[in-house]
Amino acid sequence: MALANGAMGLGLEIFDIRYWIAYVVVTIVFEAWMIGRWMGKGWTASLLLSILANSITAFMCTFTLAPVFHSQSINPDPFASTLQLFVCFGLCSAIAESVVWLTNRGTVTFNGRVFLRTIRTHLIGVPVGLAILLIPPHPYRGPQKLAEFWRWHYLAKYLPRRLGAFDEGRRIPQAQTLPELWGKLQRVADESPDAWIAVYRPSYGRFSRADETGQPIAEWNRLLSGKTWSEIREGPRTWLIRGWDSEGNAMGVLSSDNNMWGYVSDPTKLGYASSNRDQSPR
């Protein structure tokens, strides 16, 4: 049943599987009614053709178009991207599925009215599908986890480079939170224009757009404020930032005694008592 839509792969990555299954069932019945019944076919034949048509596009569209919609952005636009995804897949699916509806005893006979009906049905299905999938208050589970991952990755790469500018008497500015510190550090070469948002934890609602901020994604080690780069580099290995991701895994960026920087997920190396996020830091 999960094969019943061309956006299946990405859809399962984006949404809760329970709502996705409901969407798939509604899509099959809706297209059977809008196309098959309109063509004068019985319910059984209409449903079977709808399942066949959607199963074909599940494979074809997923493998040909899905890579286009996978984003490494730290500042995605979840609602706009999902709307674009559904419209694009809807049109591609409509064109491909029209072949199934236009096939009669193994022969494809073009019929403009059936073709346009298939296109119209898939476009109407976009708001119908979104009305189901956007029922949860935070429906974009996949994009939220992906954005969180890339923000941690971004901080692991660029925070040490920004801190590296504080040497030869220049001291890291005083800051109580990571966003406060991040705003006081100068950007380095090749950073993203959206670098400012990397320090916030993504939390997407139904109609969330880009540039939305929330709670800090991590805790800044305030003990490092006022030190120079050399003092941190030559001192004992310590954590720069640490926190817990949405899955309950410890995340952090460490200084290293070999002039390199590490991105770690071992809670004990980050000063946490155990892998339990309810534990107090040591």
Could you describe the 3D structure shown?
With 282 residues, this protein is α+β, with helices and mostly antiparallel strands. It folds into two domains: 126 residues, no CATH class; 124 residues, no CATH class. 49% of the residues lie in helices and 8% in strands. The protein contains eight helices and six strands; from the N terminus they run ααααββαααβαβββ. Strands 3-4-5-6 form a four-stranded antiparallel β-sheet, covered by helices on one side. The protein has a two-stranded antiparallel sheet with strand order 1-2. Strand 4 and strand 5 form a beta hairpin. Helix 3 crosses helix 4 and helix 4 runs antiparallel to helix 5. The longest helix is centred in the first third of the chain and has 27 residues. The protein is elongated, with a radius of gyration of 25 Å. The N terminus is likely disordered.
Number of H/I helices = 8
> How many structural domains in the coordinates?
2
Helix content: 40-55%
SSE series: HHHHEEHHHEHEEE
Given the C-alpha coordinates, what overall shape results?
Answer: elongated
Question: Strand order, biggest sheet?
Answer: 3-4-5-6
User: Which stretches are poorly predicted, pLDDT < 50 over at least 5 residues?
Assistant: 1-9, 257-261
Q: Give me the count of strands.
A: 6
Rounded average pLDDT: 83
Radius of gyration: 25 Å
The percent range for strand residues is 5-15%
Structural class: alpha+beta
End-to-end Cα distance: 49 Å
Instruction: Please give the largest β-sheet.
Output: 4 strands, antiparallel
